[in-house]
Amino acid sequence: MALSKVDLANQVENQLPQNLVANNLPFRNIIINGDMSIAQRGTSTSGVTTTDGYYACDRFYTRTDTGTWTISQSTDVPTGQGFANSFKLDCTSAGTSNADEVIIRYNSEGQFLQYLKYGTSNAESLTCSFWIKSNKTGAYSLNINNFNTSQNRLISFAYNIDSADTWEKKIITLPGDTVRSINNSNTQDFQIQWIFGAASSFTSGGVSNTWIDYAANRSAPSDLAGLGGSTSDYVNITGVQLEAASAPSDFEFLPYDVNLGRCQRYFISYGGDTQYERLGVGNIFSTTQAHFQIDYPVSMRSRASISSENIGNIKVISGSTQSFITSFTEDNSSTKIAHFEIGGASGLTVGNTIMLFATNTNIRLEFSAEL
Fold first, then answer.
1. Do 317 and 334 share a domain, yes or no?
2. Is the dihedral of CA 196, 198, 202, 205 positive or negative?
3. Residues 313 and 289 grouped into a single domain
4. Which DSSP state fits 202?
């Protein structure tokens, strides 16, 4: 009897080495942009102190509450591993080591992680692998927070940077949490943290090595090495992969356009690329005002918050009429479309269509639905 296509595929898969099968499972990496290839906000921001947020590489949030830092998308990468970029924190003005937090954080939606089966006896183990480099050897921490509505949960592990100024690959395997489920929502439900500096309130209890009800003092080891106390301090990280497995697979490289689209669920930036970049189209409802919209390339996680820079350099074109705008107000946007009311133009004809374009590269329109 002839085999069906499904039976044949299963037979072929069963004859393959298991690591080869695992390495071809699509989207096994929970981390988006783990190769640090996408940097929509720009490649470098200097003078970062206590303003926590997203800088340089998409999806990676930082807390730099001691010292002053330059945060950048770096080209320093481990040799021969296929990476072109890393995420770098570089201390440019020293604070006090371990007086406050220096953290890289990744936030994930719970609805993407239901397959981990947390809160059941079948909870999946996780393996986190990453490449890291720093000037300062010693103990650091990886921890994961599950923001369950019943009780937040925490697991933390210590690892060492053994050699200064040397790329090292770290592999940490974590058990699944059989006690608490992960909320099935599009909010910040699951958080991974790399802790490079922390006050004693985060380190006095030592790492947990197992899932516990959240206790802040179990976040990092008591002998945390601590970055931020010297202008020599820096850390680079790349090749970040978190997967449902008891052992790591090769890093999952995605095409640039696929990686960009996944990042744009959380953040989209327009402008800054070329002079005369077209921004959107709309219609005129008075001689000085018009509506226009931008269709997002992907559906965003939620209705975005919108920020802008140098909108006075945006020009309206309608037929032969060209005019700069002076105001820019969001109006009834959705997860798929950004809708605006613009004002301050002149000589417009009611009922006509318009096109908006940037007159220089200083203009930025940013749409954030970050966790």
1. yes
2. positive
3. yes
4. H
Same domain, 284 and 252: no
- Residue 127, both tokens: 């393996």
Q: Would residue 6 count as lying in a domain?
A: no
CATH number of domain containing 171: 2.60.120.260
Range of the domain at 203: 27-263
Buried residues in 300-311 as b, exposed as e (16+ CB within 10 A): bbbebebeeeeb
At 137 the pLDDT is: 98
Nearest to 348 by CA among 312, 368, 310, 319: 319
Q: Which tokens in the block code for residue 287? A: 């001689």
**Distance (Å, rounded) from C-alpha 356 to C-alpha 183?**
41
> 13 is written with which tokens?
């898969």
| 18 within a domain of the structure (yes/no) | no
Residues 244 and 292 placed together within one structural domain of the fold: no
Q: State phi, psi for 284 to the nearest 5 degrees.
A: -95, 135
272 and 326, same domain (yes or no): yes
| pLDDT-above-90 percentage for the chain | 85
Residue 16 maps to a domain: no
pLDDT at 24 (0 to 100): 59
- Together in a domain, 231 and 332: no
Higher pLDDT, 52 or 279: 52
CB–CB of 361/310 below 8 Å?
no
Q: Are 233 and 335 in the same domain?
A: no
Same domain, 282 and 189: no
**Mean pLDDT lowest for which of 18-22, 195-199, 315-319?**
18-22
Read off the pLDDT band of 20 (50, 70, 90).
very low
What phi, psi does 262 have (nearest 5°)? -70, -35
Domain boundary among 235, 263, 291: 263
Q: In this structure, are residues 88 and 235 in contact, taking their beta carbons and an 8 Å threshold? A: yes
Could you give phi then psi for residue 8, rounded to 5 degrees?
Answer: -65, -45
> Per the structure, how many domains does the chain have?
2
Amino acid residing at 139:
A
Is residue 107 within 8 Å of residue 136, measured between CB atoms? no
Of 203, 366, 211, 215, which is closest to residue 300 (Cα–Cα)?
Answer: 366
d(CA 315, CA 253): 40
Summarize the confidence of residues 84-89 as an average pLDDT: 99
* Residue 229 CB coordination number (10 Å): 20
Residue that the structure tokens 């990744």 belong to:
106
